[in-house]
Amino acid sequence: MNQRRVDRRRLYQQIAENIEELILDGTYPPGSRLPAEQELADQYEVSRNVVREALKSLKELGLVSIRTGSGTYVRQPTTQPVSEALHRFLRHNTDGFSIAHFYEIRRMLEPDSARLAAQRADEADLQAIQSALNSMKEHREDREAWTDADLEFHLAVAAATHNPLVRSILHPLMNPLRKVIAAGQVDPSGTQAGLEAHQQIFTAIEQGNPEDAHQSMLDHLLDSEQRLSALGFKPQDQI
């Protein structure tokens, strides 16, 4: 196996990186059990505590699962670590992102997501989007429930692309937007406009019309951002 001796700087990180390489090159395939802690400690000539920290780091990256009394197993790769990493990044850098930043990235992602959804959505996808839309209609007087339904609508559209990276990237962006989405419901005309916009997006996706879906989503995001501005939010305001 392509295991190597490491120097004495940040040992657990270097060991974790080496084991990660062995996972990625197929030496340890998904579902396989890594050598026991003591065996790894002997191979790398470090203490079991250092190995334990390395395995903990790999677990946090979503590369392995640690089963008490059984050992450490390589996990099947998923997009979850991507989403979780972006979520942590956003949480720890809230002062660095403004409303303009979030809407800018949404305009880059969501119109194209709607276009793909119109091309790829199956019956289950359409039901999920319709369910979120129905929930928005039902809870138009409940700001928190409305916000949850609004977010779920956009995530359901992302899921309908059948590109797992789209939802993984979009999901962490949603929670920081909760307060601005909820704020938009203060204006009753904004609520009605939101419902109409979401209905247009859904109709275009349901009818399999990619260009209408793209334009409807773009128009909705632009209108939403303009309404926030009218309510006193500035583009440079932090979320």
CATH H-tier superfamily of the largest domain? GntR ligand-binding domain-like
Largest sheet entry: 2 strands, antiparallel
Order of helices and strands: HHHEEHHHHHHHH
Mean pLDDT across all amino acids: 86
By helix and strand content, what is the structural category?
A: mainly alpha
The number of distinct β-strands equals: 2
Which architecture of the largest domain does the CATH hierarchy give at level 2?
A: Up-down Bundle
- The share of residues in helices is 55-70%
- CATH structural fold name of the largest domain: Four Helix Bundle (Hemerythrin (Met), subunit A)
Number of contiguous helices: 11
| Strand coverage percent | under 5%
- C-alpha Rg (nearest Å): 23 Å
Kindly provide the name of the CATH class of the largest domain.
Answer: Mainly Alpha
Question: Tell me, what's the shape?
Answer: elongated
* Domain unit count: 2
Describe this entry's structure for a reader.
This protein is mainly α and 239 residues long. It folds into two domains: 11-74, Arc Repressor Mutant, subunit A; 80-230, GntR ligand-binding domain-like (Four Helix Bundle (Hemerythrin (Met), subunit A), Up-down Bundle). Helix content is 67%, strand content 3%. It is built from eleven helices and two strands. The chain has helices spanning 11-24, 37-44, 48-60, 80-91, 99-120, 123-138, 143-159, 164-174, 178-184, 188-206, 210-230; strands spanning 64-67, 71-74. A two-stranded antiparallel sheet has the order 1-2. The longest helix is centred in the middle third of the chain and has 22 residues, at 99-120. The chain is elongated and about 70 Å long. The termini are far apart.
